[in-house]
Amino acid sequence: MPDTTHPAPDAPAADAPAGAREIPTLAVEDVTVRFGGIVALDAVSFSVAPRSIHALIGPNGAGKSTCFNAVTGIYRPTSGRVTLGDAVLTDTPPHEVARLGVGRAFQNLALVGGSSVLDNVMLGRYSLTKGGFLSYGLRLPRTMKAERRHGERAAEICDFLGIGAHLHRPAGVLSYGDQKRVDIARALAVEPTVLLLDEPAAGMNASETADLARLIRDISEGLSISILLVEHDMGLVMGIADRVTVLDFGRLIADDTPAVVQKDPAVIRAYLGSVEEESA
Ligand SMILES: Nc1ncnc2c1ncn2[C@@H]1O[C@H](COP(=O)(O)OP(=O)(O)OP(=O)(O)O)[C@@H](O)[C@H]1O
C-alpha cells in the first residue's frame, strides 16, 4: 500500500451528523450475549476513550466479533447495553447506528468489485442523506446537488487514505492493500466518531501490515476520532494501541495499557492455552 501523503480532509460537510467533532465515549456496559447454551459474552464492560486507539483481543472464539456485532446493533445483548455518549446503541436499529457515528470496516472485504472506488465509498455516504439511496435513484435536482457535495467529500476521504488516484477504477482490480483502504474509506464516509476495524491486517504481509499501522495512526491523528480494533497481529496491536481489552471465553480478563497487558499472567495463560489446544 502507498504511504498516506495527503492532509486530513476538512471537517465534515454541514449536513453530516458528526458536526463540530465532539467525540463521545463508547461504553460497553455489563454486556452478556447468549446463543442457546453458549455464553459468547459474559458481563463484559469496557470504555473506548475519545480519540484513543483501543484494541480488543483474545484467542479464537473469545467473543470479539460478538462484541463488535453488539456495538453495531447486529446482535441484541441478552443483558447490558452499549452507549456512545448519550445514545444507546443497543436500542438502535443497525441501519441507524452508522448515523449515530459508528463506522465499521469488515474483516472480509465487502466491496462491490465491479463498481468504481468512488461508488463504493458513496455507499457509506448514503446513510447520511435524508432520502437515502432511493432519492438518488430518482435523480431529484436537490438530491443531485447534495450528491455532488457528498461525492466531493468521498473523494477527499479517498485522497486522505492514499487511494485518490483510483477513484474511477473498479474496486476489484486494486491491490488487496488498496481494497482494504477502500473498505476503510467507506466506513469513514459515514463521518464516524468511532471507527471499528475488524482484523484489518488479516491476509497482509509484513510490509502491508506496517503500512496499515501508519494508516491507522494517520486516521487517529488526522481525523481525531476513536478507533476500536479487533486484531490477531500482536505486533500491530502492541505498537499502536493506547489501551487493550482482552477477552477469553467471553469474559474480560484484562483491560490496560499494552505494556501491562503483555505481562499479565492471565493473558499469557489464555494465549498459551489456545496454542496448546491447537497443537493437541
Ligand atoms: N451466531 C452465532 N450463533 C451461535 N454461536 C455463536 C454465534 N456467533 C458466535 N457464536 C459463538 O460465540 C463464541 C464467540 O464467538 P466470536 O465469533 O465472537 O469469537 P471471536 O473472538 O470473534 O473469534 P475469532 O477470533 O475466531 O473470530 C464462540 O463460541 C462462537 O462459536
TrEMBL record:
All residue ranges annotated as the ABC transporter domain in the record: 26-274
SMART domains the record matches: AAA
Region Disordered: start-end pairs: 1-20
Keywords: ATP-binding, Nucleotide-binding, Transport
GO molecular function: ATP binding; ATP hydrolysis activity
Domain of life: Bacteria
Signal peptide: none
CDD domains listed in its UniProt record: ABC_Mj1267_LivG_branched (cd03219)
Gene Ontology cellular component list: plasma membrane
Composition bias type Low complexity, residue spans: 7-18
Transmembrane segments: none
Name of the protein this chain belongs to: Amino acid/amide ABC transporter ATP-binding protein 1 (HAAT family)
Organism encoding this protein: Phycicoccus duodecadis
